[in-house]
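Run log // design_07
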């Protein structure tokens, strides 16, 4: 069998030669991606230090296959470090993770918003805290297993989509600051996942066949409603389902079961046309529904924006959900205006902007605070 570790697959850590004089800190979650990054760093000749943040360790979640940063995953990361012969540190960040990610996740549902905990984790515990730890360890860079690319442009480091569109994680990394991007490295951005697993097998890493981590790593069995119900019982309070024309149609089961754009699970029959969740009213605890045309918005106001380039008045492509197709738009102050109406834009999600002239380049983004109906955005 031909070797998998060909020169074009060794990962580019974008460090000055000689690499034997460089120190790379690798963020290790215990999965195959970060383990391969650690292996590639070790093969580069640089000094490698592995760091794992323990983010939770609560019974079933610590043992669940496909989690990260807890229990078995920490042991897997340590086993990889032992096999490859470098130092591995574990830091307990459980309380900070609970405060900045888990509690915020529950609060967003209570407020009638649709959260993205993975972004909050990246912009807080992972990049901010790991960034500081790596600096304290005297690292020349912090390497992670994310599928994005760091490309050197005319004005410095740029964030780009991964070459494999099926693995691209750029949507979840829009909050990466320029200072972080200058220090971060993403050696898997130019590889397909199948190749990464082949590299792990060729190197004899025990995590080669390990399943990918779940989207919401701290939720056991994917039952996020149970977690939110435990943390914020009032998020499960029942309320009215109301048509946009004011007609009360029924009773909902609690905000945690609904999101803007949702069609299934509303359980209201006998209507002339299908109904969708149009908005969630936290004050009245009402789920407002209507036909698909009621979902149309022509703009969105953004908060906590992070820009990696000047976007004011610039043609961009906006991605308003992780699985959405990027849509043409322009930025005017804190407002994102779509070239054509968008549907199912949910407060609490992120709007991530890509360069219309180079669709792989991430320009930054912000959190969707509110949406603008057609008559309000003109």
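design_07 sequence
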């Amino acid at each position: 069998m031909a070797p998998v570790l060909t020169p074009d697959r060794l990962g580019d850590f974008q460090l000055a030669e000689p690499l034997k004089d460089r120190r790379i800190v690798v963020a290790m979650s215990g999965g195959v991606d970060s383990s391969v990054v650690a292996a590639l760093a070790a093969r580069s000749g640089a000094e490698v230090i592995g760091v794992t943040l323990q983010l939770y360790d609560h019974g079933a979640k610590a043992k669940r296959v496909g989690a990260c940063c807890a229990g078995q995953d920490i042991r897997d990361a340590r086993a990889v470090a032992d096999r490859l012969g470098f130092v591995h540190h574990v830091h307990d960040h459980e309380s900070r993770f609970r405060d900045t990610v888990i509690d915020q996740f529950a609060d967003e549902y209570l407020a009638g918003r649709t959260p993205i905990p993975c972004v909050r984790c990246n912009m807080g515990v992972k990049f901010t805290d790991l960034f500081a730890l790596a600096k304290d360890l005297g690292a020349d860079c912090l390497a992670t297993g994310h599928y994005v690319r760091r490309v050197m442009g005319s004005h410095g480091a740029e964030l780009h989509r991964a070459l494999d569109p099926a693995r691209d994680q750029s949507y979840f990394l829009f909050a990466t600051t320029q200072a972080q991007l200058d220090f971060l490295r993403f050696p898997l951005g130019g590889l397909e996942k199948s190749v990464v697993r082949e590299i792990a097998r060729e190197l004899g890493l025990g995590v080669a066949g390990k399943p990918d981590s779940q989207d919401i790593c701290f939720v056991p069995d994917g039952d996020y409603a149970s977690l939110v119900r435990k943390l914020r019982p009032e998020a499960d309070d029942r309320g009215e389902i109301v048509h946009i024309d004011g007609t009360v149609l029924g009773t909902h089961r609690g905000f945690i079961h609904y999101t803007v754009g949702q069609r299934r699970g509303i359980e209201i029959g006998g209507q002339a046309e299908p109904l969708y969740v149009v908005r969630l009213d936290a004050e009245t605890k009402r789920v407002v529904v209507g036909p698909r045309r009621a979902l149309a918005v022509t703009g969105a106001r953004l908060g906590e924006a992070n820009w990696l380039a000047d976007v004011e008045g610039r043609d961009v492509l906006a991605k308003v959900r992780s699985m959405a197709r990027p849509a043409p738009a322009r930025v005017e102050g804190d407002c994102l205006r779509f070239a054509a109406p968008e549907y199912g834009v949910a407060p609490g999600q992120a709007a991530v902007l890509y360069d219309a002239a180079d669709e792989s380049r991430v320009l930054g983004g912000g959190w969707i605070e509110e949406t603008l109906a057609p008559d309000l955005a003109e």
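The chain has nine helices and 17 strands.
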